[in-house]
Amino acid sequence: MESNSYSPREALADADDARQLLAARLEPPRWYYVALGGQIFLLMVAIAWFAAPLVALAGSLCAVGGSALAAGAAKRIRAVTRFGTADFWAVAIVTAVLLAGAFCALLVRFEELPAWSGWLVAAVSGVAAGGAMVTRTRAVARRLAAGA
Amino acid sequence: MRAEFNATIHAPIRLRACAMLAAVKELEFSLLRDELGVADSVLSKHLKVLAEEGYVSIRRPVGMGGRPKTWVSLTKAGREALKGHLAALQELARQAEGLDEPGPKR
User: In angstroms, rounded to a whole number, what is the distance separating the alpha carbons of residues B6 and A145?
Assistant: First the structure.
């Protein structure tokens, strides 16, 4: 039988390794946070500097690039159901909010919208992005705690 | 929870699969296969053994578009059996440590 020479210590170590391997997989790569953080930062800068369309444009591009990276991470994480699906939607919502924010910054710049709307969008973007990241981190913690 | 050695779970691949499944609600078959580093057929065989004992549940949802994926999850009975088995292993490991210790010198 295959388990005859499988000692209790080896088995315990194997079970622990397997759990840790999956835990490492559940945890998104660091650049996931860097991408999201970069998007938020540049968007804030773009919105705060209403008179700088290039910065607003850079914010938009960063949002698109960062979102693509984040979506890649989400796709990887999606192999773990429910939690992963929620993560996917969190990324999608944050991306939509950030892109809308960057667009609003441009509208404000060209005086299609009043200046206060820029700050409102900045606040909504920040809360949405921050909320999604906190929710996501808590989901990871909960999953790992449930398996501990 | 009762510490009980479980021969079905104790097989190395099944034990590692159960340990991974215990950390999540569900895992996609291909991810489990890749993490375990085994072939599809090998994993299928082991999951079948676990499913027959009622330790894992395998579902293949349809109607979502794209290629249907197979999701594997540990059942309540499976979680209990794994916990009991790990507790039994810890007990055995402790006993083995006791045996390893040198006795008093004469």
Answer: 24
CA atoms of A127 and A123, how far apart (whole Å): 6
Closest CA to A60 of A105, A119, A112: A105
Q: Does A12 touch chain B (CB under 8 A)?
A: yes
Q: Angle at CA A52, nearest 5°, toward A48 and A57?
A: 95
CATH number of this structure's domain B7-93, picked from the four choices 1.10.10.60, 3.40.50.300, 1.10.10.10, 2.130.10.10: 1.10.10.10
Average pLDDT on A77-98 reads 58
Residue B23: both structure tokens together? 């950390």
Nearest to B12 among A3, A19, A79 (CB): A3
Q: Which helix (H) or strand (E) holds B56?
A: strand B56-59
A14 and B12 within 8 Å at the Cβ level: the answer is yes
Q: Which residues of chain B make contact with A147, given a CB cutoff of 8 A?
A: 22-24
* Residues of chain A with C-beta less than 8 angstroms from the C-beta of B10: 3, 6, 11
- Assign A131 a pLDDT band (cuts: 50, 70, 90): low
Per-residue pLDDT tens digits for A47-83? 666 545 555 555 555 555 555 555 555 555 555 544 4
- Report, as ranges of residue numbers, the positions in chain B whose pLDDT lies below 50: 106
